[in-house]
Model the fold of this input.
Amino acid sequence: MQRILVLNPKGGSGKTTIATNLASYFAISGDRPVLQDNDPQASSSRWLKKRSPDQPPIHGIAGFDRNSRMTRAWQMRIPPEAAHVIVDTPAAVPAQDMPDMTKTADVIIVPVLPSDIDIHACSKCIADLLLIAKVRRDEYRIGVVANRVKRNTVIYQSLMRFLETLRIPVIATLRDSQNYVRGAELGVGVHEMKRHLVEQDLTDWQPMLAWLKAKEASVHPLQGAAALPVTA
Ligand SMILES: Nc1ncnc2c1ncn2[C@@H]1O[C@H](COP(=O)(O)OP(=O)(O)O)[C@@H](O)[C@H]1O
Ligand SMILES: [Mg+2]
Done:
């Protein structure tokens, strides 16, 4: 099972958009993913509620809800068939909470917008991950997603230059697209929309999905081997 944490203490950077679109992608791939919403604003949970029963299922966990009548263990349970757990996180996560948040994550996706404020917030977030959460660069657990990008703009060029200096892989560049806004309203992801409307968005997602797959293969090196015939 792969645990994917989507994190950036800056609000509006695209955490929920990435978490919900990933959940949707794994759901249509037949994976029965888990979408764990740790944000009291509950945007991921609201998105999930909008899905209709005939859409591929996603198991939701309202991690933020401490007043649930369920026991915490029952509320937080991961169904045994889940291959991917995607964790959406709130804005304004204090740096001292990062070690706990990140310790069980196989991968950490940090979305960043092309704006001065967001670039600054992203560099603080990466510094906290490296220095406070002690995520090592050579674990290659962190991937940055440049989000809401308008190519051919000066600020986009500055964002990409900044990301190069971080020495953290940029695993996708998602364009600014109304498809994400529509998907948030309808409880779907771009992979579930009419293909001719989302062609460019699907292309944008490819490198992130490939990165996740490669990470999964390296974290669980025996997974593929299990399918090989046993020789005497
Ligand atoms: N690539 C994108 N193109 C257009 N709108 C986007 C994109 N990514 C996010 N948005 C919109 O920006 C707003 C904030 O995104 P959201 O994912 O909720 O951020 P966060 O969870 O980090 O606060 C939402 O209205 C969302 O639909
Ligand atoms: Mg959010």
In short: Confidence is low (pLDDT under 50) at residues 222-232. Residues 15-16, 39, 43, 88 surround magnesium ion (ligand 2) (CB under 6 Å). Strands lie at 2-6, 34-37, 59-61, 84-88, 107-112, 142-149, 170-175.
